[in-house]
Write a structure and sequence with these properties.
Elements lengths: L2 E8 L2 E8 L2 E3 L1 H42 L7 E12 L14 H22 L5 H15 L8 E6 L3 E8 L2 E9 H7 L5 H12 L3 E7 L2 E14 L7
Antiparallel strand pairs: 1-2, 2-3, 4-9, 5-6, 6-7, 7-8, 8-9
Helix pairs in contact: 2-3
Length: 236
């Protein structure tokens, strides 16, 4: 039998001694049990409120971070690519002394551009698009196994291009390498194959460079220029 005897009223709740299964719980024991239960309920409610507040704060911060974050600025790199490379080994057929193998013509071209590379390194100048296109040609020639040779009296002009004296077949020759428009004035009439290649490259919007030795045109290179998004193949 269970009997409850009212002893006091605390906070509107009657507190009494309790007799359960023959064991009597005193008023103080009942009070302790009562307040313990109330305290646990309060702690649970407080924990739930704090957790909800933390979650809300995180959502606000995340939402604010996304809203205030600056969009990434796309980064592009310049790509200079060799589109055509045409050689005329002997533009003046009547003179065997004007004949040079393609490998020799590649060597002469690379030698002139190596001089430009050294010049830019010493002057600490920012390379122009013309210089970058020539550098792409040099890299292309190096991948083909061309190597530079000795040269003297090297000089360069933003309009005329680059020039130097080079020994070929035992003779000192004047080698020129520059934009086709300037080279058309600094050399004899272009051979038909080179003239056709120059015209086609200009029509495609490429940069066009011509190699001349002792006033005769021996080679033409056309270079395309584009911007490419870093990490992708997207072109502009």
């Amino acid at each position: 039998m269970r009997s409850i005897q009212l002893l006091a009223s605390i906070g509107g709740v009657d507190i009494a001694s309790v007799d359960i299964a023959g064991h009597t719980f005193t008023k103080s024991q009942v009070e302790i049990a009562f307040y313990t239960i109330v305290g646990l309920i309060a702690l649970i409610l407080l924990a739930l409120v704090l957790r909800a507040a933390v979650n809300l704060g995180q959502k606000i911060r995340q939402g604010g971070g996304k809203k205030n974050a600056e969009p990434e600025v796309p980064q592009y790199e310049e790509i200079f690519e060799i589109e055509t490379e045409i050689f005329e080994t002997n533009p003046y057929k009547n003179d065997p002394d004007t004949y040079f193998e393609q490998s020799v013509l590649r060597t002469v071209t690379l030698t002139l551009i190596i001089g430009l590379r050294e010049y830019l390194a010493k002057m600490a100048e920012n390379a122009s698009d013309q210089h970058k296109a020539m550098a792409a040609i040099a890299k292309h020639l190096e991948t083909l196994g061309a190597t530079p040779i000795a040269f003297t009296q090297w000089n360069q002009s933003p309009i005329q291009g680059i020039a130097a004296r080079i020994i070929l077949n035992g003779k000192s020759r004047t080698a020129l390498f520059g934009p086709s428009l300037a080279m058309s004035k600094a050399s004899a009439k272009f051979p038909d194959e080179i003239a056709s290649a120059v015209e086609a490259a200009h029509g495609a919007g490429h940069s066009v460079f011509v190699l001349a030795i002792d006033g005769l045109a021996y080679a033409v290179f056309s270079v395309s220029h584009r911007l490419q998004l870093i990490g992708s193949g997207d072109r502009i």
